[in-house]
Amino acid sequence: MGIQLALVCVAGGRGARFGGDKLAERVAGRSILEHSLAALRRAYPTAPLVAVVPSHRIESWRELLAAGFPDAELVAGGDRRQDSVRAGVARAVVGGADVVAVHDAARPAVDPEDVKWVVKALGTAGGAVLCGVVEDAVKRVDGSGLVLETMDRGELRLAQTPQVFRAAALARAWESVDFSRAWTDEAAMLESLGVPVRSVVAQRPNPKLTTVDDLRLIRMMLEGRG
What we know:
alpha/beta
């Protein structure tokens, strides 16, 4: 029996470090959010699509997305990323999903093949995370900056998105963990409970839009794809 996959694109942030609504920035005729949705849609054309956006922007985003993504469901995000993810996954589950691919809209250049790769890698695990490799030497330091040790970078990964989860595993995690604390991501919640989470190395660059300098790089990537 096949999985019922839904795509959840999280765009509920405030863009504080960017200095404005970074997901509304236009590149090659589309907003950053639209590029992220398009990448997910190219990977899985028929999967239900949920976009989590700030509550005060739901109607404006609904209007902007109507032409390109008329079937996308828009959900109001929360104060924290983890609240927004939970809201988006809840909507996806109501629609019948038992597996969800959670993607940060701030990663608009993700390759659709990498999206499919991480979904396929889920297997029997509770989650699977698209990752980058660590290319530089990594030092662990103390509070004064003195080096304590050099980490084995072969055992380290840089977490990206999409992150793919079994909806049931997320539900159990939300019931079991202290949700009042800030979690790095949903994979960290599962890890804290001993739930297996696989890492999958991205085959193409997948930068995150955080600063204006990131936008320059992402613009070159997206415009270069035509």
